[in-house]
Write a structure and sequence with these properties.
Elements (H helix, E strand, L loop, with lengths): L13 H6 L1 H9 L3 H9 L1 H7 L4 H9 L2 H6 L4 H10 L4 H9 L3 H11 L1
Helix pairs in contact: 2-7, 3-4, 8-9
Length: 112
């Protein structure tokens, strides 16, 4: 099957899922409050325990959603990570599109 090329978009396909397995597994763990607290206490140790690679670790440090997606992150799991910092899916969408949250929300309302 041919995957369409969408400029500026990283498609989450089987290859990306395999690439991001450790990252997404770690983000899924944030469903538990104790795990969120452990991450905040010692981020490096928490990432190491899940076996994140250098690209994933750098994206975590930068808190950069686009880098996390390029490193194999799935937006739904990344929302668990963003939640630690009080961010929601609209914050993530704004970061992905290069807009402020207010601009992103306005775009959503205009499309409705």
């Amino acid at each position: 099957m041919c995957t369409p090329d969408i400029p500026g978009t990283t498609l989450f396909d089987g290859r990306q899922a395999r690439k991001g397995y450790a990252l997404n597994k770690m983000c899924f763990s944030f469903n538990q409050a104790a795990n969120r607290e452990a991450f905040v206490r010692d981020e490096d140790a928490y990432c190491a325990a899940y076996g994140l690679n250098a690209q994933q670790r750098e994206a975590i440090r930068a808190r950069n959603v686009l880098q996390l997606i390029e490193a194999g992150g799935n937006a739904y799991y990344l929302a668990k990570f963003a939640g630690i910092f009080g961010l929601d899916m609209q914050d993530i969408g704004a970061q992905q599109t290069g807009l402020t949250k207010a601009e992103f929300q306005a775009r959503l309302l205009a499309a409705a």
